[in-house]
Design goal:
The complex is a heterodimer of chains A (about 350) and B (about 100). With about 350 residues, chain A is mainly alpha-helical. In chain A, strands 1-3-2 form a 3-stranded mixed sheet, with helices on both faces. The termini of chain A are far apart. The mean pLDDT of chain A is about 90. Chain B starts with 11 loop residues before the first helix and ends with a helix. The N terminus and C terminus of chain B are likely disordered. By secondary structure, chain B is an all-alpha fold. Helices cover about 60% and strands about 0% of the residues of chain B. Chain B is globular, with a radius of gyration of 14 Å. Chain B has one domain. The chains are: A mainly alpha (about 350), B mainly alpha (about 100). The interface between A and B is large, with 51 and 41 residues.
Chain lengths: ~350, ~100
């Protein structure tokens, strides 16, 4: 990076802020985050850039990436675009693991059908950026963004969106360094010094297993059903374990069977003084749920809130034989999604009422 | 992605920038915190502290420094942290970057 490319980047950011300034956010914390990003940018703008050293330029390149990412995701997370009912379950799952008040979950809608992923700085990178921004500008950004990508066409698809629990698992993994610690235990060195294919593979697989298990805490094996479709019979690659092995691991966890990797993960979590993997759902019997009468399920608690996804999946998978059989395929699809959405949304509304009484 | 995930979780350039600032007498707002992290890393290296107990804010840095502890902590005096200590960390960070980029 030199001064001219820095100026280019600065101008691009200025344009981005200008385009985003009229965004309306459903959550005041998002608005505040946007304002803070802009305030930081204004401080950078008035600096004497011509005197920036190579090191200054390098730091600002990283700060600019941080600002660009923040804007990109906030832009997609405005009133009309955010799948609120989906995010609400993820927020609750997040709060089981790390103090949720410092985070804002934002979503980005992708045109790619399988584009479920997360982007975000882990605790360490966030800390580095905070330190550099504080030192240079005496300024602190209060919140952190967890950025989740999901396909635009599936934004109201509550069946497929269970995959996002898996993605949140990746975030927690990087935040708490679970795979990194597993790697350290196995190879006796930090994972950032990975050399061999075997080492890379171990680290990548550990991360996938953890994300699967993390998701299974909340949505049982719902994610496996979808995985078995999109990655059916996939054998192990350098980045992912075989689909069969992933599904088996989730089953072992749900059945609380002993498994060396699950035990090691639990050990690492316990030693680190954080939450451990646990079954955090309360199974809902499809026969006694409201769904059979085409009404939302009356969700009694947060564990049931997560379980609504599994209920939805069971309802869909048995739709040739259950109450949905009298409807056409597309109607079934809309009914299941609406029932899941309304079940979650009713729970949210009741919680808000209860707080206001 | 669900079945294709990319992960970037260590940013050596930012640490290099921070330690360069410390070498040049800047970075006062985080100097004492970084010094504490170096002390913690030495304790882990000496077996006086568990790596698990290290804050996630510095976990990767500490685990990296511990892996190079022999060269880093031989003359390290926690009550008098010197520029040469920061330079040692910078050398380790530079090496780690070479390692990662060679692999990718």
């Amino acid at each position: 990076m030199n001064h001219k490319t820095f100026e280019l980047n600065l101008t691009q950011l200025e344009e981005s802020f200008s385009k985003s300034k009229s965004n309306k956010y459903s959550n005041p914390r998002k608005k505040k985050h946007f304002d803070q990003l802009r305030e930081l940018f204004e401080k950078i703008k008035v600096e004497n850039h011509s005197e920036f050293t190579k090191e200054d330029l390098e730091d600002h390149f990283q700060i600019f990436q941080f600002l660009f990412n923040g804007l990109e995701f906030l832009d997609d997370s405005t009133l009309n675009a955010t799948p609120y009912e989906i995010v609400t379950g993820l927020e609750r799952a997040l709060s089981d693991w790390i103090p949720q008040e410092t985070f804002i979950i934002v979503t980005s809608l992708s045109n790619k059908i399988n584009h479920f992923s997360f982007e975000g700085n882990n605790a360490e990178k966030n800390n580095q950026l905070r330190k550099i921004i504080k030192d240079r500008y005496d300024y602190e950004i209060e919140h952190r963004l967890i950025k989740i990508n999901l396909p635009k066409v599936l934004v109201r698809d509550y069946l497929t969106c269970v995959v996002l629990y898996h993605e949140l698992g990746h975030f927690i993994d990087l935040e708490l360094n679970v795979s990194a610690k597993l790697f350290q235990n196995k190879f006796g060195k930090p994972h950032i010094l990975m050399f061999t294919k075997e080492e890379f593979r171990y680290y990548a697989h550990a991360g996938e297993y953890f994300a699967d298990l993390f998701a299974a805490q909340y949505i049982e094996d719902s994610s496996s059903i979808y995985l078995n479709y999109v990655a059916h019979n996939h054998s192990a690659s350098n980045t992912h374990p075989a689909t069969f092995d992933r599904i088996q691991k989730v089953l072992q966890f749900i059945n609380q069977d002993s498994d060396p990797l699950i035990e090691e993960i639990q050990h690492v979590l316990q030693q680190s003084g954080v939450s451990q993997l646990a079954l955090r759902y309360e199974t809902i019997d499809p026969e006694t749920s409201g769904f059979t009468n085409l009404i939302p399920h009356k969700v009694e608690n947060v564990n049931q809130l997560h379980a609504v996804y599994k209920l939805g999946w069971e309802t869909w998978m048995k739709s040739d034989d259950n109450f949905l059989s009298r409807f056409e395929r597309r109607e079934r699809y809309h009914i299941v999604n609406n029932l899941i959405e309304k079940s979650i949304s009713n729970f949210n509304v009741q919680e808000i009422w209860a707080k206001n009484i | 992605m669900y079945f294709a995930q990319t992960r970037v979780d260590f940013n050596a350039p930012l640490y290099i920038s921070m330690f360069n600032s410390l070498m040049e007498g800047r970075g006062d707002s985080y100097r004492s915190e970084i010094d504490s992290v170096l002390v913690e890393a030495k304790k882990v290296y000496n077996g006086e502290k568990e790596i698990y107990s290290i804050s996630n804010d510095y976990f990767n840095l500490v685990s990296l420094l511990v892996s190079k502890g022999e060269s880093l902590f031989a003359d390290f005096n926690e009550s008098e942290i010197k520029s040469s200590d920061y330079q040692g960390v910078l050398n380790v960070l530079a090496d780690s970057q070479t390692t990662v980029s060679d692999e990718s």
